[in-house]
Amino acid sequence: MVEKYDAIEQLLKAVHANELSVDDAKDQLNHYDELGFAKIDLHRTQRQGFPEVIFGEGKTKEQLHDIVHTLIKHDSIVLITRIDQEKADHITAKYDQLEYHETARIVSTPIKHIAKTNHYASIICAGTSDLPVAEEAAITAEVMGIQVQRFYDVGVSGIHRLFAHIESIRQSKVSVVVAGMEGALSSVVAGLVDHPVYAVPTSIGYGANLQGVTTLLSMVNSCAPGTSVLNIDNGFGGGYNAAMIINMIESH
């Protein structure tokens, strides 16, 4: 990920050498494609190491098509989250080089075409009902070039299932723990590993779960150090943060 700074460094050197004006440099750094309904940030990779991610929910299939067209035109990796089957079919019919991950509700550049890191992130899921959020995290990390190990259906109601995989989880550099109900799994995992844990509460649970609010509060009140809590159902955020950790490790 060190390469992400190369273009900006060259730009600054050109300004320093009076080969490029400050105004021209600002124009290049602020470059985006104006689509009327959206401004596509084409320098996100240079600043943050990964292109702009498209949030599919609330956008029409025509809008998504135009955004994808811009990204592909600029040789960008494509990652669309929260996209339903109908919109996904529309996009993949137009751009057959993309693939749809149904459980994660993600359209992306094919994962097999993306080089993977040496270190891996653990994506840990409490129950089958939490799978859409866990897969959103896993696919996001994989599209960002991260090797992922999945540990699913290992919730605290059958804690022995987690212990069967704990050594493999400990060998990862970061864990994303996805759970609903009371959200206890993230505290358990954080108490057993020496790396950062991202806890993702889901909206899965009975009435008093309050669509994930109870889970969120439980995770925020964790007594296990090293835990950071994402928003409800935010698998994307968990996967993205895990990818940042792995890329930081491998860039040094």
TrEMBL record:
GO molecular function terms attached to this record = hydrolase activity
Q: Which SUPFAM superfamilies match?
A: N5-CAIR mutase (phosphoribosylaminoimidazole carboxylase, PurE)
InterPro entries documented for this protein: P2CMN_synthase_LarB, PurE_dom
Q: Where is the signal peptide?
A: none
Per the record, the GO terms for biological process are: 'de novo' IMP biosynthetic process
Q: Which residues form the PurE domain?
A: 119-251
Name this protein carries in UniProt = Putative NCAIR mutase
What is the scientific name of the source organism? Staphylococcus saprophyticus subsp. saprophyticus (strain ATCC 15305 / DSM 20229 / NCIMB 8711 / NCTC 7292 / S-41)
